[in-house]
Amino acid sequence: MKMISILFLCFLWPLGAQETLTLTPEAILERMEQQMRGETAQMELNMTIIRPRFTREMSMRSWSRGEDYSLILITAPARDRGTAFLKRQNEIWNYLPTVDRMIKLPPSMMGQSWMGSDFTNDDLVRESSRVHDYTHRLLPEEQVQGFACYVIESIPKPESAIVFSKVKLWISKEHFYHLKTENYDERDALVSTVLLSDIKQMGDRRLPSRIEMVPADKEGHKTIIQYASGVFDAPLDDRFFSVQNLKNIR
User: Fold this and answer.
1) Which stretch is the leader sequence (predicted)?
2) pLDDT in tens, 68-79
3) Which member of 36, 64, 157, 191 has the greatest number of CB atoms within 10 A?
4) Distance between CA atoms of residues 163 and 183, nearest Å
């Protein structure tokens, strides 16, 4: 019986190794999304916007469930406190407490700056799907921060409302950490680079806790997001991500 078990395991091992080696780009991205976000995620984070003549800081909380639902609430500074953004399936809403006004964002605004940072509305309240709104291909592996990484080139599908003509992602092979992104325009010129680092324990998993967005053509400009804490896979239902709740969330 022991010999049969050993032979069985020896037979299965190369099949498992081959499966790992032949992961599709879509499967890699799905593993990365699951590792980075889970079924649901509740995060506390700080954002620092760096400019040649000033630095601006914000604190916020975020909640997400899959690709269809996400909510961001700004908690500081005082002048922005209560400002909130909601993605509910294909709709994006913004609540402005200073005028008690709810605004539905059109798709044309998704490429615009989010709260004056180097991130876009689509970066923070993602309307597009990393997996389904692009066609993907694997490029040769590279090292990033000491990790062997898959490199995936993603081209937006014609029907997708995405401002970049090409996106390249670096995802670690061992833990599926998202470690780097490069965004390109229609002339194949680099628009911005996103670097993810400082891997820490958050909730039940280890993740990059620092995200740095650097535009290619604006010297001295960058935006840094630092995650303070995270809880994953806690229940969040549809009612939490309602337009009515956007005004009341605290």
Assistant:
1) 1-19
2) 899 999 999 999
3) 64
4) 9
Give the mean model confidence (pLDDT) for residues 63-72.
Answer: 89
User: Do 230 and 43 contact (CB within 8 A), yes or no?
Assistant: yes
Cα 182 from Cα 250, distance rounded (Å): 34
Omega before residue 77 within 30° of 0, cis: yes
- Tens of pLDDT along 145-162? 999 999 999 998 887 767
- In the DSSP assignment, the letter for residue 110 is T
Q: How far apart are CA 28 and CA 170, in angstroms?
A: 10
- Which domains does the chain carry? 31-248 (2.50.20.10)
Alpha-carbon dihedral of residues 195, 198, 201, 204, nearest 10 degrees? 10
- Collapsing DSSP to helix, strand or coil, 73 comes out as strand
Cβ pair 72, 122 in contact under 8 A: no
Kindly give, in sequence order, each residue whose CB lies less than 8 Å from that of residue 89, ignoring residues fewer than 6 positions away.
Answer: 68, 69
